[in-house]
C-alpha cells in the first residue's frame, strides 16, 4: 500500500480517506489532523457567509443612520417646518422641502395614471390574446425597455421628447382647456416642453415594463382550471380577465404597481433632465418644477455651507423613508400572492 | 321582454370583449412603440458621431472636438472595482441564505431587506457613500464611486445566487455528504459548480445595472476632464460625462453625449441578452 502523504488543505475529505486507509499510527494522526483542518475551514466558511448576510442588513442600517446623522443640522434648524415650507433659498439659508415633495408625488402620480392601465392591458394581451410564438419575443422586448439606463431616457427626453411636446401636445392642451374653468389653470403658461407633465410621461414609460412583467407573471400563475371553468360557462375573454383573473391576482397586481411606484418616486436622471429644476409649486402641470431626487442631483455638488448640504441630505432621508415603506408594502403583497399560489 | 334583451345582451358582451381586446393590442403596440422610438433616436443621433476618435481621444474642452477615452476607461475601472467588491459579498450572503440558513428567520429578514435594496433609489446610495467615505476622506475619489456601485451590485448578486442555489437538487448534496465531504466543500465543489451558469448571469445583470448608473457617481467619483488612473482622485465615467455634456450648450459636447449614450445602451443590451441566453440554455 502506498504510504500516506501529508494531506493538504486543498484536498477534499474523499482524497484523504482514500489515501490514508487503515494504515499506521502516523497515518491515523495525520488523518485526524486533516479532518480537524477541514472542520475548521468549514466553520470559518459558515461564519463568513453568515457575516455577509448580516452585511446586507448593515448596508440598510448604514444608509438610514448616515442619512439621519447627515440631516440632523437641517432638521434641528427647521424642525417640522422643513416639510411644510415651500421656500428654498441658498442665499439666506432657509430651506423647505414642500416643493420637491410635491413634484415627486405629482410626477409619480401622472406616471402611474398612464403606466398602470397600459401595463395591465399589455399583460392581458401577453397572457390571453398573444399567439404562443410571439409571447416570448414581445415579453423580452418589454423587459429590455426596463434594462435601458435612466440617463438614456433623460437625454432622449431632453432632445427629442420635450421639443416634440412643446410643438404638439402642450399647445393643444392649452387651446383645448384654455377656457374650461378649473382645467385652464392646470394647463396654464407657455409651453416650455420641459416640466412636470413631461417628467411624468417619461416616468410612465420607465415604470411600464416593471408593472407589465410582474402582472404577466401573476396572471400566468392563475390555475387553468379556474379559467377553463369560466370559459365553460360561456364567458368572453374579457369577462374571464375581469371576473376571474383580476380578482384572483389582485394582491400581486397591487404589489407590482407599488413596486413600479417605488421606482417612479426614486427615479433620478430621467427626471433631472426634463423637469426644469424650479423650486416652486405651480398649479400648472406644464410649468417647470422639481422632485426630491432631481434637486439632490442638481445641487449637491454645488452646495456650499453645512446647512445647505444637510438640507439636501434631509431630502434624501425623506425620499428613502417614503420609498422604503412603498417597497416594503409591495414586497409584502407579492409574498402573500406567492404563498397563495405556492 | 325575455327574448329581445337576450340577443342585445350577447351583442353587448361580445362588443365589450372586442373593445377590451383591441385596447390590449393597442397598449402593447404603444409599449413597443416607445422602445422603437427611444432606440431609433439613439441610433440616429449616436451613430452620427461615432468614429475612431471617440475611443482614442480625451474629452475635449468646450466647443472643440474630442473623444470619450477617459470616461470609457473610468467606467471600466469603476465597474471592475464594484464587481470585485460586490460579487464576493453577494455570493457569500446568497450562500448563507440558500445553504447554511435556508429556513432560518435571519434568511427571510435578509431576503426582504435585500429585495427592498434591489429597487431602492440609487441617488440615496450616492448620499450614503458620500457620508461614510467622501466626507471623512475630505475629497471625491474613484474608490468611493466603486464602493457606491458595489452597494448596487450586492443585492442583485445575492438574489440570483440564492435563487440558483435553491434550484440545485438536494440529492447532489446528500450524495456528496454521504461520501464524507464537509459542508463547505459540498458548497464549493458541488453546489457552485451546478449553479455556475445562473450565478454568472447574476453578475452580468449586475454589470448591466451599474454600467448606466449615474446618480450614485455624481457625488462620489465626481468627474475628471483628464486621464486619471488614481483611485484616490476624482474619476470620469461615461454616465456622468453624458449628464454634463448633454446639459451643456455646446454642439460638440451634445454630440459626444449621444454617442456615449449609444455605447452604454449597447453594452447594457448585449449584457442582458447574453445573460438571458445563458439562463435559457441552462433551463433546457
Would you spell out the secondary-structure blueprint of this structure?
The complex is a heterodimer of chains A (342) and B (284).
Chain A: H1 13-20, H2 25-78, E1 88-89, E2 94-95, H3 98-129, H4 132-147, H5 150-167, H6 169-177, H7 183-186, H8 196-220, H9 224-232, H10 237-266, H11 269-275, H12 292-299, H13 306-341
Antiparallel strand pairs in A: 1-2
Helix pairs in contact in A: 1-2, 2-13, 3-8, 3-10, 3-12, 4-8, 5-8, 5-11, 8-10, 8-11, 9-10, 10-13, 11-12, 12-13
Chain B: H1 3-48, H2 52-56, H3 69-100, H4 105-118, H5 122-137, H6 142-167, H7 170-178, H8 183-211, H9 215-218, H10 238-246, H11 251-283
Helix pairs in contact in B: 1-11, 3-6, 3-8, 3-10, 4-6, 5-6, 6-8, 7-8, 8-11, 10-11
Give a structural overview:
The complex is a heterodimer of chains A (342) and B (284). Chain A has 342 residues and is an all-alpha fold. In chain A, 75% of the residues lie in helices and 1% in strands. In chain A, strands 1-2 form a two-stranded antiparallel sheet. In chain A, helix 8 runs antiparallel to helix 11. Chain B is mainly α. Chain B is built from 11 helices and no strands. Chain B has helices at residues 3-48, 52-56, 69-100, 105-118, 122-137, 142-167, 170-178, 183-211, 215-218, 238-246, 251-283. In chain B, helix 3 (69-100) packs across helix 10 (238-246) and helix 8 (183-211) runs antiparallel to helix 11. The longest helix of chain B has 46 residues, at 3-48. The model of chain B has no long low-confidence stretch (mean pLDDT 90). The chains are: A mainly alpha (342), B mainly alpha (284). Chains A and B meet through helix 1, helix 2, helix 3, helix 4 and helix 5 of A and helix 1, helix 3, helix 4, helix 5 and helix 6 of B.
